[in-house]
C-alpha cells in the first residue's frame, strides 16, 4: 500500500511539474492571463471611452490573445515608464504605438505589428505653419516623454538648423501627448510632433482648435509589441498568432479600419 501511495504521490508530482512547465512555456506572469502595458490616453491606439479601453492596440491584442488562448487585461502607465515596467515584471508585454528602435532592442525584444509616421500639429490660428521637420527650426516644440523624436529633433537642430544659421529647435517634454496638446493650446509650445493617426484624433477631439500643418508623413517607422529580453516563449507565441490573424484576414481588416500600413 505504501509503495502504491508513494508511486501515486510521485506521479502527481510529475504531473504538477508538467503543468508548471506548460505555464512557464506560455511566457506570461500568470497562467492564462496576458497583461499589456499601455498608455491609455493615446487615441486612436489606446484610450478610454467611458470605462472601456478602445483603439487599434486593444483590438489587435484581443485578436492575438484569442489565438493564444489567453485573457487580456491592461495596465495604464506613462509612455516613458513602459519599458522599465516591462523589465520589472509589471506586465507581460508593452503595446502602445511604440517605434522599434535600436536603443530599445538593447533591453527588450519586439515583434512588429504596423507601420506609421509622424505629423506636425499647430493651433488653428498659429502664425507658423511648419510643413516639414526642417521648418521647426527656431520653434519651441512639445513632445511626449520617451518618444524617439526627442533625439531626432535634437540631431536635426544641430546638423541642419544651426549649421544653416537658423534658430535651434527647443524641445519641451511633457508626461503625455494630451498634455503636450494642452500646452500648445495654452501657448507654451508652438508646435507638437505626434504619430499621424494620433494627430488626426487630437484634431477631432479638440474640435478643430488644432490642425495638422505637415504636408507629408515624417520619420516613417515600424511599431512594435515589446517583450522582456529573453522571453522567447511569449515572443514566439505572438509571432505565431500574428501569422494566424494575417492568414484569416482579421489583421488586414483592422489595419484598413485605422488607416495604418501593414507589416509583412
UniProtKB/TrEMBL annotation:
This protein's UniProt keywords: Signal
Leader sequence segment: 1-26
Regions annotated as coiled coil: none
Pfam families xrefs: SBP_bac_3
Stored CDD domains: PBP2_MidA_like
Limits of the Solute-binding protein family 3/N-terminal domain: 33-262
InterPro entries attached to this UniProt entry: Solute-binding_3/MltF_N (IPR001638)
Assigned protein family: Belongs to the bacterial solute-binding protein 3 family.
Protein name as it appears in the record: Amino acid ABC transporter substrate-binding protein (PAAT family)
Natural source organism: Marinomonas balearica
Amino acid at each position: 500500500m505504501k509503495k502504491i501511495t508513494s508511486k501515486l504521490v510521485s506521479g502527481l508530482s510529475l504531473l504538477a511539474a508538467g503543468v508548471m512547465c506548460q505555464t512557464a512555456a506560455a511566457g506570461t506572469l500568470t497562467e492564462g492571463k496576458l497583461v499589456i502595458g499601455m498608455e491609455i490616453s493615446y487615441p486612436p491606439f489606446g484610450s478610454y471611452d467611458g470605462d472601456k479601453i478602445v483603439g487599434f492596440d486593444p483590438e489587435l491584442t484581443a485578436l492575438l490573445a484569442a489565438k493564444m488562448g489567453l485573457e487580456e487585461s491592461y495596465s495604464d502607465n506613462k509612455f516613458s515608464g513602459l519599458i522599465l515596467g516591462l523589465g520589472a515584471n509589471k506586465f507581460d508585454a508593452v503595446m502602445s504605438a511604440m517605434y522599434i528602435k535600436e536603443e530599445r532592442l538593447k533591453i527588450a525584444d519586439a515583434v512588429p505589428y504596423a507601420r506609421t509616421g509622424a505629423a506636425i500639429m499647430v493651433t488653428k490660428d498659429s502664425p507658423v505653419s511648419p510643413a516639414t521637420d526642417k521648418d521647426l527650426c527656431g520653434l519651441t516644440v512639445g513632445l511626449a516623454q520617451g518618444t524617439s523624436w526627442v533625439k531626432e529633433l535634437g540631431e536635426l537642430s544641430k546638423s541642419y538648423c544651426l549649421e544653416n544659421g537658423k534658430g535651434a529647435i527647443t524641445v519641451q517634454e511633457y508626461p503625455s501627448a494630451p498634455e503636450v496638446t494642452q500646452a500648445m493650446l495654452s501657448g507654451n509650445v508652438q508646435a507638437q510632433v505626434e504619430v499621424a493617426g494620433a494627430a488626426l484624433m487630437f484634431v477631432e477631439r479638440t474640435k478643430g482648435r488644432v490642425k495638422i500643418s505637415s504636408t507629408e508623413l515624417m520619420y516613417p517607422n515600424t511599431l512594435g509589441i515589446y517583450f522582456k529580453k529573453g522571453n522567447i516563449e511569449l515572443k514566439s507565441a505572438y509571432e505565431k498568432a500574428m501569422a494566424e490573424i494575417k492568414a484569416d484576414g482579421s489583421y488586414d481588416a483592422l489595419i484598413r479600419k485605422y488607416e495604418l500600413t501593414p507589416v509583412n
